[in-house]
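Justification of resources, computational component.

The compute hours requested in this renewal are based largely on the per-chain cost of generating structure records like the one below. Each record pairs the submitted sequence with a full structure-token output. That output is archived, and it is also reused by downstream analysis tasks.
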Amino acid sequence: MAVILVTGGAGYIGSVTTAHLIEAGHEVIVLDNLSRGRRDLIHPQARFIRGDVMELETHISERDAIDAVFHFAAYSAAGEAARHPELYWHNNTTASLHMLDVMRRLQIKKLIFSSTCFTYGAAKHLPITETHATQPTNPYGMSKLAVDMAIRSECDAHGLAAVSFRYFNVGGAYGEYGELHDSETRIIPLALAAADQGAPFALFGDDYDTFDGSCIRDYIHVADLARAHLLTLPTLKPGKHAIYNLGNGQGFSNRQVLQTVQEVTGKTLAVTVRPRRTGDPAALVASSVKASREIGWQPQKPLLRTIVQDAWDFYRLHHPSTVVSEYATELDAMVH
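The structure output for this chain reads:
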């Protein structure tokens, strides 16, 4: 079994993947500065280091004998990125470049990187494959694409073995590990909180060229995403940088999401229709054929009902004090 460094392991996807790694028998070191992660989401069997990726060399050394890095640490709110791009270039790009430098010095030769569908920008053809042009329209996607390009160069020049996963919409939870933030930006936890609290929910746009007028997005269960990381680890090859989309291969509209939230919670949502958000495309759906063909990955929890039910179970378990705001659904389902 391997020793895995998980950066951002106190976050949503990082915590779920850490749990999967430990259950599979791996030794996990979690590095997280807790600026947006939560200490209580870190698996108790993981070795936790509170620290920043920019200070990575002060926290790990050759003695840690790290076999691979799973790099989740990043900011991921599109609206915030548009207002404060400097935060994203520093935290997502500069820190990742520093991490690559440290990995090279310590001879850590394997990397799995948390990228995003935001690297593609607006889709001209669906479903989106890995050969789709990368034309990000937001600093978040730009910051991630820059890291993808740096990883490719590192593989070519120094023999790094790496994979970038471009996530589409991640939802659900894995037992006691899930999405828990002080201020949410994703439609499923926002809708669950609104239903639970009896708060109004703003639906941005009902006049898109879709079957019900609302945006269509591709949803993937967070446990399926974590499994993809474990499946990929033994396939990493020196000098190769593989890129895989991870999605469901089918889309669900925002109205379908809201209807499912009502069915799962047994509560009625007070939905208010607002004008479209600038830059929000009508539909985004992934093709994950490449991941299926090359790493044998298939979603095991593809149903929207399962994703929402697991998220609701997690919500009730933790009772988060979620802030529900109109801003929060900006570019809602494009954010991984």
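Confidence is low (pLDDT under 50) at residues 322-336. The chain has nine helices and 13 strands.
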